[in-house]
Amino acid sequence: MDSDQITGVFGKVSGLPVPVAAHVREEQQPEARIYTVTAEWIQSDLVRCSRFRFSQQWTLIADSNNHRSIRTILPPGPCAPVSGELLSDISPNQGLRAVVRETGSQQLLEIWDHHGLRKCLNLSALNNHGRVYDDAQFGCLSWSECETKLLYVAEGSRSSSGEPGESTSRKDRSVYCEEWGEALTSKSVPVLCVVDLLHGAVGVLQGVPPDVSPGQALWAPGAHSVFFVGWYHEPFRLGLKFCSNRRSALFRLSLDGRCECISEDNVSVSCPRLSPDGSTLIYLQGRVFGPHNQCHSVQQLDLKSWKTSTMLDVVSRPQDGEFAGVYEALPSHCWSADGQKVVFSSAVRNWKDVFMVDRRTKKVTSLSDKLSDLSKVYGSWKLLTVQRDLMVVCCSSPSSPPTLRVGFLPSADCETVTWRTLQAPFMTFDYLWTVLNVTPSSEEDNITYPGLDFGAVLVKPSRPACESKTPLVVSIHGGPHSQFPAEWNSTSAGLVELGFAVLMVNYRGSTGFGQDSILSLIGQIGSQDVKDVQRAVTAALQSDKTLDPKRLAVIGGSHGGFLSCHLIGQYPDFYRACAARNPVINAATLLGTSDIVDWRYTSAGFQFSYDSIPTAENLAVMLQKSPITYAAMIKAPVLLMLGGKDRRVSPHQGLELYKVLKSRGSPVRYTRST
Hints:
The chain is mainly beta. Helix content is 14%, strand content 37%.
């Protein structure tokens, strides 16, 4: 194929829309109950080289005497582009919709009702604060119960020296200003903002501790105070994106400025979610430092007694087929209507599933359709929302793009969910895929955490392009504490469309296999994870004789790029090509440039503290665990794709390998985005 054909293939698979959010509205009619489901999708467009969002709406009609039975699903209306919306939220009584919208350099707050635009405030012109935060880490938009106030987070107005009230003429813009790292470079000093809709006024809440950066805020019952997560930023800020191990706490702040911490000290917390009756606040809790992503516990705070208990604990080592723990953020709406159950999705080995936990019995139940024929179609399930006990989920597999489905929560433990499809993909693909379970050899077993296994997902064309064997691309996820679930992946789909098989490896340290698996990788990077990937590739070649062992390539980004470069150096005659995006090449030289310096110590097996100064031993071990050590052995052609502004893995990392390979005459190509 020429480059235009290849571009066309990737344009086709990457242009398929993916649902990312949903909302449910309920209305009781004399003879039926009406549910309106609005879903928001993201779609890529190669013409404009960007992604855009659109929304679509469905009407569901349920029986009035059995509202959990969907009688009719009306055809959806046309898709509507969502232009400039940063944040949005529906009011408690469902009659108003608040939108923070960006138009040019201005940020507007809009209030919409059934008749149109009711109110619009120019937040930029009011000049009470800087830009509104719309990221997943800090951002929020929350209605008060009385629907007269809105709560959000924005960058605080401050002088460069940090002293409020200093005149503009005295500001020194050359003073260094700390930021929150990769993908949060414009975030430094967040503040909590309240809009009084009756008077059109915007105020910044006072009383947040000076060593805390607030985010993920929501109204407390009665709307006289707010709850928020506060990240401690002294003595300096560490990168937050994909890092659930930052010291943080849950706070309650009254509107008159009284603030108190209501969670444990020296833990990490996130995702506070208030029950429908306002009696209970749940949140995720984890360790500080150590693995940057981990298995969380779910804590529940009784707002009457102010006592905290554990709803779900950390799962160290799950049994096969059982719930494996909580590894991802809770949806903004995750409570059942009666406030007795919490619904969420999480990784389970090589899959992703939807679960329900009963807060009284603490029993965890899978809600996916495992026993039906659809379980062979959908490899992974992700919850978008649950409102009025109606769940909206996204289901997909390596051969089936996302499908939007709905189903009511079961009213009894033995009851199964009757799932209905709202939107099926307009195309599916005739790929073959399977899940591999891999066991390390006795020599590769972890002494501290013995007996762990791992897995991989193999996807390949149903019919080879020719009679010869199928070439295999080994795809390695970054993190390292993340996962390749058996879900739709446009990169893998594009490669399969081009005639390749793809093996996505979940080495030990991936999420979904328990906390022990995550901890097993600490101090073992560059060896345990490399051997795991190589063993998975060997297992795939042994189990599937249609794969060509002489045509193997490896791809990955960040830690996946780190492993890709390790593999072509440690097994130079095994792989024929490598593509690495923002790879870690030399952990020793990365130490001073990464936004997550703590992980650089931890991954190498050292304890981190804020006042850590690297020693010769630290640097020697980091270098020994790095791909640059094996660079002279590399024979395969290498494509390096580097982000010029990456705060986590500097582009100078890839440049180090580029210079080594270039000096030795090895085929290498270096592309860089700005």
